[in-house]
């Protein structure tokens, strides 16, 4: 079983590295780095802080966008080129295919996180940079698992990409939304508010609050306790397993 | 393309189904045991520069102003009003309110919060800070923002017991807010009277009646009676003869 999964993972990663994806990642990160120097030069005070914050926030968003889109496009292309049909015609359990793909994409996410973290290692303290890099890798792993789930479930790029984008934005804003809904100034006891609050709290149970991951504050204010990173790692692993299980569930139900 | 017909759930291997159920239950259990988010007063950082906010607004500065105001509100809107207010850094709060006003010049929400909510804390220094903020913002749009300065004038008079400050606010309303309600524009007269500046109050009140600016018969009657009281100079007049709108 492991041999099949690792083979699929290896070829998934190889395919990514042989496309223009590495070049795209390098160009985007270098552009962000150059822009960060511009931001630093126009800041009247705390220039280094501005530069680090700008680059870190930009690299995080760029990493999420790049890996998410790549997963969606890659799987959609396999659907359309019938490559998946060929793979499934072999003696290959569907679960192994999904796990292999997920492992390959997760490895790609780690590589993108490492690439994005290299300038951060120069801009910020080493331990803080390491924490940021680890958290970014975990966040990108969640994004690739989510993208894989969406493209398998929806089968087309547009709805899958829309869902991934909406999910990511909601996950980043969830904590703030919960705070706003918890104690409004007026209308706290109306049915509409109670219903909305119930929905928001229910979402909070099944979604990760991604605002806690890869925080720029670690780089510019001070590193986080390592227990926080370990907790994020645990949450990330659990959420990736959940998404992988959901993907396998959907994939087993597809008729090809 | 994929066929639209799906296989039944029974075709999914049992281990996959079990993994999905267990993972979902673990996810819910994990999130359940996490503490609910609480906005800590010290977590309110400095706002981004107005220019950065405009970039982030993506062409919708009013929406961003509104969402930002709701976000700021979350830091004080918890059970027990006084505790979080006193912990808040009011310099940062005014910076946020100012930044929000830069995005939405017409919106009154930030000034309402400054005058009626943040200014309600039982801390004189913070009340003065909010009043100073409202005073500064009043100058930028007197005709729309006079009511918040009027509230601050009342706050200065009755809570801060600072009559000169109340008078300065009332005079600013009279001088700059041409579209303010009559009662707000007349505040300075009554504050002067309370300050013992009887003659000045009589002159202003008489001038107001002579100018024809006041046209409501009930208001003319009220102001005339007030002028008679001042002229009688038996200063047992009630504090603040300010009429509220509709009275």
Quick structural gist:
The complex is a heterodimer of chains A (256) and B (247). Chain A has 256 residues and is an all-alpha fold. Chain A has helices spanning 2-18, 21-42, 47-80, 83-89, 94-123, 126-154, 157-182, 191-206, 217-220, 226-252.
Question: Please, could you describe this protein's structure?
Answer:
Chain A has helices at 2-18, 21-42, 47-80, 83-89, 94-123, 126-154, 157-182, 191-206, 217-220, 226-252. Chain A is mainly alpha-helical. Chain A has one domain (2-252). In chain A, helix 6 packs across helix 7 (157-182). The longest helix of chain A has 34 residues, at 47-80. Chain A is globular and about 60 Å long. Chain B folds into 2 domains: 41-168; 181-247, no CATH class. Chain B is built from 13 helices and no strands. Chain B has helices at 14-33, 50-56, 61-73, 82-87, 90-103, 109-117, 124-138, 142-158, 163-176, 182-185, 187-194, 198-211, 217-232. In chain B, helix 8 runs antiparallel to helix 9 (163-176). The N and C termini of chain B lie far apart (73 Å). The chains are: A mainly alpha (256), B mainly alpha (247). The A-B interface holds A 79-80, 93, 95, 155, 175-176, 178-180, 182-185, 204-206, 209, 234-235, 238-239, 241-242, 244-246, 248-249, 252-256 and B 1-3, 5-9, 11-13, 15-17, 19-20, 23-24, 26-28, 30-32, 36-39, 70-71, 73-74, 77-79, 117.
């Amino acid at each position: 079983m492991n041999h099949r999964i690792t083979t699929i993972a290896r070829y998934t990663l190889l395919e990514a590295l042989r496309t223009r994806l590495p070049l795209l990642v390098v160009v985007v990160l270098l552009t962000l780095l150059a822009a960060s120097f511009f931001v630093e030069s126009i800041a009247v005070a705390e220039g280094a802080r501005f530069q680090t914050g700008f680059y870190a926030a930009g690299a995080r968003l760029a990493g999420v966008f790049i890996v998410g889109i790549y997963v969606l496009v890659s799987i959609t292309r396999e659907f359309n080129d019938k490559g998946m049909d060929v793979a499934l015609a072999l003696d290959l359990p569907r679960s192994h295919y999904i796990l292999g793909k997920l492992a390959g994409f997760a490895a790609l996410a780690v590589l993108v996180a490492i690439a994005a973290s290299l300038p951060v290692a120069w801009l910020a303290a080493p331990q803080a940079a390491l924490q940021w890099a680890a958290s970014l890798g975990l966040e990108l792993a969640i994004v690739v698992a989510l993208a894989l789930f969406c493209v398998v479930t929806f089968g087309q790029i547009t709805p899958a990409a829309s869902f991934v984008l909406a999910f990511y934005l909601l996950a980043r804003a969830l904590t703030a939304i919960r705070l706003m809904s918890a104690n409004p100034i007026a209308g706290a006891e109306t049915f509409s508010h109670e219903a909305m609050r119930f929905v928001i709290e229910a979402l909070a149970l099944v979604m990760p609050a991604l605002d806690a991951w890869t925080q720029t504050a670690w780089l510019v204010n001070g590193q986080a306790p390592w227990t926080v990173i370990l907790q994020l790692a645990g949450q990330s692993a659990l959420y990736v397993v959940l998404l992988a299980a959901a993907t396998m569930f959907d994939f087993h139900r597809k008729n090809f | 393309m994929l066929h639209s017909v799906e296989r039944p759930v029974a075709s999914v291997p049992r281990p996959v189904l079990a993994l999905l159920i267990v993972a979902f239950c673990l996810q819910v259990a994990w999130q359940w045991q996490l503490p609910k988010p609480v906005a800590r007063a010290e977590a309110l950082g400095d706002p981004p520069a107005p220019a950065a906010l405009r970039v982030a607004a993506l062409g919708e500065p009013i929406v961003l102003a509104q969402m930002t105001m709701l976000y700021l509100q979350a830091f004080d809107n918890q059970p027990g009003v006084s505790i979080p207010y006193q912990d808040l850094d009011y310099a940062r709060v005014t910076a946020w309110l100012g930044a929000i006003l830069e995005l939405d010049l017409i919106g009154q929400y930030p000034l309402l919060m400054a005058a009626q909510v943040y200014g309600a804390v039982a801390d004189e220094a913070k009340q003065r800070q909010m009043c100073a903020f409202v005073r500064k913002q009043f100058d930028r749009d007197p005709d729309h923002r006079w009511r918040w300065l009027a509230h601050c004038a009342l706050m200065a008079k009755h809570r801060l017991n600072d009559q000169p400050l109340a008078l300065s606010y009332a005079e600013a309303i009279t001088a700059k807010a041409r579209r303010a309600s009559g009662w707000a524009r007349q505040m300075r007269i009554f504050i002067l009277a309370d300050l013992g500046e009887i003659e000045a109050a009589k002159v202003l009140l008489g001038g107001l009646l002579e100018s024809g600016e006041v046209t409501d018969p009930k208001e003319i009657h009220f102001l005339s009676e007030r002028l008679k009281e001042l002229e009688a100079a038996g200063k047992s007049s009630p504090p603040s003869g300010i009429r509220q709108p509709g009275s």
